[in-house]
């Protein structure tokens, strides 16, 4: 089996279509580390497609967590008024208006680029089964010498769902000996804090510490997504710009 790893595509539908072509190769499985949705326009579509694909191992990211909490908050608000979610949404001029008006979870999701994703969900009839499937996504995976989760986490918190989805305090800590942690969540530029503020157009997955790899190429801003082949360590990059530097 050929395993490819990817993270943080954030609703970039054009990049996802290119990735899907790579997944058409025989015996190829994608390990997706979370954050399919929000920021870009096609997050809901990408989430639904990933859920339906037998060759995608889909892990929970913090934006999936935000999506689930936001959907249930909207569902509860609608129920309190005796309305369906779609009827409730129709009271507002825009999805953004509805989310800013809502509870803390919807406002937090909105402030993190959630409006296109919630809009896609409501346009699809606000199916609860999709939300339930996202809510049940695993938060970690182990294959051979590799450990996978969305955010990375301190060694002591491996197994903590909250830490593996949200943590950003582990970067200076090495991972378990003889194992490799692969994560996303934090764009590679910000793993270290002594970088300049200039945002490079193209990023690549970054090895840091002796045994950690960050896969977040900030696709929404760079229009670049990368797949890491676990067997060969090759990077497959999808970008409209020049080739990425060698990994």
Question: What can you see in these coordinates?
Answer:
- This protein has 247 residues and is α/β, with parallel strands linked by helices.
- It contains ten helices and ten strands.
- The strands form two sheets. The protein has a five-stranded mixed sheet with strand order 3-2-1-9-10.
- Helix 3 (62-80) runs antiparallel to helix 8 (128-135) and helix 5 crosses helix 6 (104-111).
- The protein is globular and about 55 Å long.
Tally the helices: what do you get? Answer: 10
Structural class: alpha/beta
In whole angstroms, how far apart are the ends? 22 Å
Main sheet characteristics: 5 strands, mixed
Oligomer: single chain
Q: Beta-sheet strand percentage?
A: 15-25%
CA gyration radius, whole angstroms: 18 Å
Low-pLDDT regions: none
Mean pLDDT: 92
Proportion of residues in helical segments: 25-40%
Shape: globular
Please state how the strands of the largest beta sheet are arranged side by side: 3-2-1-9-10
Give helix and strand order, one letter per element, not per position. EHEHEHHHHHHEEHEEEHEE
Kindly state the number of beta strands.
10
């Amino acid at each position: 089996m050929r395993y490819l790893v990817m993270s943080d595509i954030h609703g970039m539908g054009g990049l996802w279509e290119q990735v899907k072509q790579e997944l058409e190769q025989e015996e190829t499985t994608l390990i997706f580390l979370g954050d399919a949705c929000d920021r870009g326009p096609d997050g809901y579509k990408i989430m639904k497609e990933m859920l339906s694909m037998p060759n995608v191992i889909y892990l929970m990211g913090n934006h999936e967590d935000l999506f689930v909490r936001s959907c249930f908050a909207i569902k509860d608000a609608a129920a309190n008024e005796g309305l369906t979610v779609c009827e409730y949404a129709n009271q507002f001029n825009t999805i953004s208006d509805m989310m800013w008006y809502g509870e803390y979870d919807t406002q937090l999701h909105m402030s993190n680029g959630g409006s296109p994703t919630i809009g896609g969900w409501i346009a699809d009839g606000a199916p609860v089964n999709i939300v339930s499937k996202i809510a049940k996504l695993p938060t970690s995976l182990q294959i051979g010498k590799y450990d996978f989760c969305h955010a990375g986490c301190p060694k002591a918190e491996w197994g903590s769902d909250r830490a593996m989805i949200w943590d950003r305090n582990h970067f200076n800590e090495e991972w378990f000996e003889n194992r490799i942690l692969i994560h996303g969540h934090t764009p590679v530029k910000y793993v270290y804090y002594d970088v300049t503020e200039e945002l490079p157009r193209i990023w690549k997955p970054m090895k840091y510490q002796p045994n950690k790899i960050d896969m977040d190429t900030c696709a929404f801003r760079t229009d670049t997504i990368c797949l890491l082949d676990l067997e060969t360590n090759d990077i497959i990059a999808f970008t409209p710009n020049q080739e990425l530097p060698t990994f």
